[in-house]
């Protein structure tokens, strides 16, 4: 152990060499190298956690850089875990880093999580959150959870018994997984770049506290933080009544659960198209273009060319019959539109040609601004 590297921790009253040794022996898995994962990784590596696994199958994009500060402009297009591992190794070569250049799925989750003592969920979608939660419950692994949207963030610790012997998980907070696209994430709502930095650092803090046993952890509590007024408040989480939700009892049940995660059959169901293909289809007689954004989102599109059906009422819209042969869904970033397109494919199958505009209006904003 490099005592000079960790000097400020070693001399800290109530921490010292005993706590540092606990850190050096700990194994932490960080799922997601995004806005939450980047700061969590930096401080966990700097603190001297012995082994850290990093899971992410995504590539660096320009829109990541205002909050994912492990990356720079020259990293755009590169695999996140590879860039992150290089930077983190330079920060602290004593830490063993293992990268998983893929997304978390039902097929790989249990094997990966079983190798680590603590799990940090830095993902930004409900499919992954419920999958990770259920896997942690099944494997009896502590879960450090964080989420951000707009100007607010949340932080919680699940699957650890409190002083009263009670243990909660994510489903005690939100028992039922929402449908795809039903609740937008930060890619749709936006987020101020410093917010995930704050919450991600707090996630690292809670992980260090759990490993070393210092302080009082957020077990069975969810901490809410509002960046605009710098206010915090806690809500106590209690176990839900029996049969409020179902958790998989074993590996077979886990593999049969329907999380609807991103690596499903969507590419066999819905074709994502670019703006040129949208224009070609738009010129055909039997084409309907549906904007699934909420009414307050901008830019507003010409109602003569685009039918607006917000995701908040899309379920009721599914009861209507569509006459057009080609159906194109679009939204701000191409996330909700893909979910809406999958719903339509479930209804019509091969009877209709169903498309989603890849990247959404933001990616092709010049076209829509000029068109409007």
UniProtKB/TrEMBL annotation:
Residues 283-369 form the Rhodanese domain. SMART domains: RHOD (SM00450). InterPro entries: Rhodanese-like_dom, Rhodanese-like_dom_sf, ThiF/MoeB/HesA, ThiF_NAD_FAD-bd, Ubiquitin-activating_enz. It comes from the Bacteria. The lineage of its organism: Bacteria, Pseudomonadati, Bacteroidota, Sphingobacteriia, Sphingobacteriales. It comes from Pedobacter fastidiosus. This is HesA/MoeB/ThiF family protein.
């Amino acid at each position: 152990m490099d005592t000079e590297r960790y000097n400020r921790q070693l001399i800290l009253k109530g921490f010292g060499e005993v706590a540092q040794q606990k850190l050096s022996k700990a194994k932490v898995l960080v799922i997601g190298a995004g806005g939450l994962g980047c700061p969590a990784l930096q401080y966990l590596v700097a603190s001297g956690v012995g082994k850290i696994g990093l899971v992410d199958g995504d590539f660096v994009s320009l829109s990541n850089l205002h909050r994912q500060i492990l990356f720079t402009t020259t990293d755009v297009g590169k695999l996140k875990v590879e860039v992150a591992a290089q930077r983190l190794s330079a920060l602290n070569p004593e830490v063993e880093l293992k990268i998983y250049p893929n997304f978390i799925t039902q097929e790989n989750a249990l094997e990966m999580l079983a190798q680590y003592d603590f799990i940090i969920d830095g993902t930004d979608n409900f499919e992954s959150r419920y999958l990770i939660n259920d896997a942690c419950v099944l494997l009896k692994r502590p879960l450090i959870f964080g989420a951000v949207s707009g100007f607010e963030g949340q932080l919680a610790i699940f699957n650890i018994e409190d002083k009263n012997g009670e243990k909660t998980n994510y489903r005690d907070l939100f028992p039922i997984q929402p449908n795809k696209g039903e609740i937008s994430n930060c890619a749709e709502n936006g987020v101020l770049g410093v917010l995930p930095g704050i919450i991600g650092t707090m996630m690292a803090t809670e992980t260090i506290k759990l490993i070393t046993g210092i302080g009082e952890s957020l077990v069975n509590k969810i901490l809410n933080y509002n960046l605009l007024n710098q206010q915090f408040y806690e809500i106590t989480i209690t176990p839900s009544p029996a049969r409020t939700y179902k958790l998989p009892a074993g590996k077979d049940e886990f593999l049969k659960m329907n999380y609807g995660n991103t690596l499903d059959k969507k590419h066999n169901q819905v074709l994502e198209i670019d703006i040129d293909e949208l224009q070609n289809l738009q010129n055909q007689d039997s084409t309907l273009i549906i904007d699934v954004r909420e009414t307050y989102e901008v830019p507003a599109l010409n109602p003569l060319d685009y039918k607006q059906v917000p995701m908040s009422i899309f379920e009721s819209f599914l009861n209507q019959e569509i006459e057009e042969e080609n159906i194109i869904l679009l939204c701000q970033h191409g996330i909700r539109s893909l979910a809406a397109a999958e719903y339509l494919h479930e209804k019509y199958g091969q009877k209709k040609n169903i498309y989603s505009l890849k990247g959404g209006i933001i990616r092709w904003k010049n076209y829509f601004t000029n068109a409007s």
